[in-house]
Design a protein that fits this description.
The complex is a heterodimer of chains A (549) and B (150).
Chain A (H helix, E strand, L loop, with lengths): L15 E7 L3 H12 L4 E4 L17 H4 L8 H4 L8 E5 L30 H5 L9 H15 L24 H14 L4 E2 L33 H4 L1 H6 L3 E3 L3 E7 L5 E7 L5 E11 L2 H11 L25 E7 L15 E3 L15 E7 L15 H4 L2 H10 L3 E8 L8 E9 L5 E7 L3 H20 L4 E5 L36 E3 L14 H17 L9
Parallel strand pairs in A: 1-2, 1-8, 2-5, 3-14, 8-16
Antiparallel strand pairs in A: 4-10, 6-7, 7-8, 9-12, 9-15, 10-11, 11-12, 13-14
Helix pairs in contact in A: 1-13, 5-13, 6-12
Chain B lengths: L18 H14 L14 H12 L4 H11 L7 H8 L1 H15 L3 H6 L18 H9 L10
Helix pairs in contact in B: 2-5, 3-5, 4-5
Classes of the chains: A alpha/beta (549), B mainly alpha (150).
């Protein structure tokens, strides 16, 4: 594995960049690499730094201790100096993320899935929420390109999705636990399929094959997992992109004509800079992007930038997540990776109104990890059930012999669920921090209740001797979506279908903020496909692109 | 402003326990993890004398709540002490439990006894042939995604 960490300093940067990208996570990395390859002078500002594979503890005895703090996905728990605080006192769910080069792909479990066609037509099909201004067919070729950029491992022919180009790599092993789960699904006649994953089953490019440490959610010590620090930044640097790390953007600057002129940011020493750019792309995730837009007020934009619709920060969706852990009577080696999804099911993904709710959920089989367990640090059970002789009994019963069916519930957009600026909380640089207001809906509650019952059936059919249910995990807000939605009508959306802000012609948003609805699937493949589509359009239309003089 | 600190995802110097605290901790550790079910007690695998220091090195954030737990334990009867700490300061009890369980499995002997190899590299072996027959019936049932107007 080749590690390329080539940081620029503010003094290295051009006086005016062609494109300035805020955030070096999934979408920002894809855009920076692609635009640099097309000859643009690209500057990317990332508030975090590099995270080297040797710093991950997944291959070390202390892994389960450190995963609850230093590698926790909740920035309020991790409290890394690169993180910003988030007020979650009015939220049912904690937003999760990683701030640094690679963004949350550093800690994601790499489920790499396409949204099926129905996800883009929720209003038409189910009479709720909204349709997207794009359809599955608009993204299909970009999904294909992303598969090759990141090296997706998967098995062709899944009848839950339209036909597609072959996966570049064969599937990862589903292991003993995947087979045990599949046996239950087979008995029930329910859909299952090996989970497509952004982890290479063979050496791919400069990355080695997966080593099955099973610690994907705390960083890949093998350097195999497709985090964009590994998959995109080496190519971006080679093409000439410049990256400044530990650069925290304070606001997007605009001129009197309402065009973006660049950004104001603080470098790692807290020194303020104004980096000019012809065009600004925001890729700071579904919390960071609205925070930045709301912090970018001016005489012309008193309510925040690109916010004439009033929808910046609103319609936040975070995918409430439920899980049912099953314990079995045989050794399933359930510490082996991949940690994300051995197999998945789309059996009950599509709407059936007879169930009493609309939309659905994807299920994934996940291993349970080491002796402290997948939910180490979240138990809260009575003392006598957890300690004394029970400690040994629990470890022996569960270690290697249990797995989890996880349920990702599609939550629908609701303007009351939102990212706002906290009136008092700030980050270490004094920049106003975000506050999350989020309540899970009745539809989601019914959906989760119904799916939990079906998942119990799946465990029973597979022969589980015991099950334990978590109906709404508070630390589950991995997927931060909807807070600057795309649409054709500027009064009801923030950006158009090409991710360009309706109000600011040279400002783009390309992260999960642009999602119209959340789907019930892990969104990173879609986020990056949308980013790639945006960049293609931007390049094709560059002569018509309005820029600040 | 003097500049931001580096990321904190590396082990920091750990807090240490005084002799008195360590003696009290040894008692609590064996109540949490006793000799039972064929497994050794915490003190039998050096948790109070060695591994707790390692655990604190990896989790210095838990030193203060651990010391609070030890403070609450002073003078309590062993039979009730864990429930007493948990009832009075759940955060301190959580720290006590997390550190003790984590320390226990830092010892290679306990990992061996429970049959856990730790996180080790295992080469990829395709296992498609072990499930293809089951999967064929999924494929034979046909497409299940919803037909959608473009």
């Amino acid at each position: 594995m080749t590690r390329v960490t080539r940081d620029a300093t503010p003094a290295d940067l051009p006086s005016v960049a062609d494109v300035l990208v805020v955030g070096a996570g999934a979408s920002g990395s894809v855009a920076a690499a692609e635009l640099a390859r097309k000859g643009f002078r690209v500057v990317c500002l990332e508030q975090g730094g590099w995270t080297l594979p040797e710093s991950f503890t997944g291959d070390k005895p202390e892994w389960e201790l450190t995963k609850q703090k230093d590698w926790h996905p909740n920035p309020n728990v991790r409290a890394n100096p690169w993180d910003y605080p988030i007020d979650t006192s009015d939220s049912d769910v904690n937003p999760l993320m990683y701030n640094g080069v690679g963004g949350s792909t550093i800690l994601y479990t790499s489920h790499w899935l396409r949204m099926p066609p129905s996800d883009f037509r929720v209003r038409t099909l189910d009479g709720v929420a909204d349709d997207w201004p794009i359809a599955y067919d608009d993204l299909a070729s970009y999904y294909d390109r992303m598969d090759h950029q990141i090296g997706t491992s998967g098995l062709d022919g899944d009848p839950a999705f339209p036909s597609r180009q072959p996966y570049p790599l064969p599937p990862l092993p589903i292991g003993k636990l995947g087979r045990r789960a599949a046996t239950g699904m087979d008995r029930l006649g329910w859909h299952w399929w090996p989970g497509p994953t952004a982890i290479p089953s063979r050496a791919y490019g400069h990355r080695p094959a997966c080593a099955r440490f099973g610690t994907c959610a705390t960083g890949c010590p093998q350097g195999a997992k497709a985090s964009t620090d590994l998959t995109h930044w080496p190519n971006a640097f080679e093409a000439g992109a410049q990256l400044v790390t530990q650069a925290r953007v304070k606001e997007v600057a605009v001129n009197a004509k309402g065009l973006a002129t660049g950004v104001v940011y603080l470098d790692r020493d807290g020194v303020e800079h104004h980096q000019k750019a012809s065009l600004v792309i925001l890729a700071a995730n579904g919390v960071g992007t609205p925070r930045l837009l709301l912090n970018s007020t001016s005489h012309r934009f008193p309510d925040g930038l690109a916010n004439s619709s009033g929808l910046v920060g609103k319609r936040l969706m975070m995918h409430p997540f439920a899980a049912v852990t099953g314990t079995y009577d045989e050794d399933l080696e359930s510490w082996l990776g991949p940690a994300g999804q051995a197999i998945m099911s789309m059996q009950y993904y599509e709407t059936d109104v007879s169930r009493g709710f609309v939309r659905g959920a994807k299920w994934s089989v996940m291993p349970t990890g080491g002796p402290l367990g997948i939910r180490a640090g979240f138990s809260g059970r009575p003392v006598e059930e957890e300690w004394g002789p029970a400690f040994h009994q629990n470890v022996k019963a569960n270690l290697g012999r249990s797995f989890e069916w996880g349920i990702i519930a599609e939550d629908l957009p609701d303007e009351a669920n939102q990212v706002v600026l906290d009136p008092t909380l700030t980050d270490a640089d004094g920049i106003p921090a975000p506050k999350i207001v989020y309540k899970s809906s009745d539809n989601t509650t019914k959906l989760i209740d119904w799916h939990v019952e079906r998942v119990h059936q799946a465990h029973e059919a597979a022969g589980a001797i015991k099950t334990a249910t978590t109906k709404l995990l508070r630390d589950c807000g991995w997927h931060l979506l909807g807070t600057a939605r795309m649409g054709n009508d500027r009064s009801t959306s923030v950006v158009n279908q090409w991710c360009r802000a309706h109000d600011v012609p040279n400002l783009y948003v390309i992260d999960g903020s642009v999602f119209v609805t959340s789907s019930g699937l892990n969104p990173t493949a879609t986020i990056t496909a949308i980013a790639l589509r945006c960049v293609d359009h931007l390049v094709a239309e560059r002569r018509n692109q309005q820029v600040a003089p | 402003m003097t500049g931001r600190a580096e990321a904190n995802n590396a082990a920091q110097p750990g807090a240490t326990l005084s002799q008195t605290e360590r003696q009290l901790y040894a008692l609590l550790a064996d109540l949490l993890i006793p000799n039972a079910e064929g497994m050794p007690a915490a003190s039998e695998v050096d948790v109070p004398t060695r591994w707790i220091d390692e655990a604190l090195r990896f989790r210095p954030d838990l030193a203060a709540p651990l010391k609070r737990a030890l403070g609450l334990a002073r003078g309590q009867q062993p039979a009730d002490v864990l429930a007493w700490i948990n009832g009075n300061d759940p955060e301190a009890f959580e720290a006590l439990g997390t550190l003790t369980a984590g320390a226990y499995f830092l010892d290679p002997r306990t990992r061996t006894l429970v049959g856990y190899p730790g996180q080790v590299a295992v080469p990829i072996r395709d296992d498609i042939d072990t499930y293809l027959e089951m999967l064929a019936s999924v494929a034979e049932r046909g497409e299940i995604y919803r037909k959608t107007p473009n």
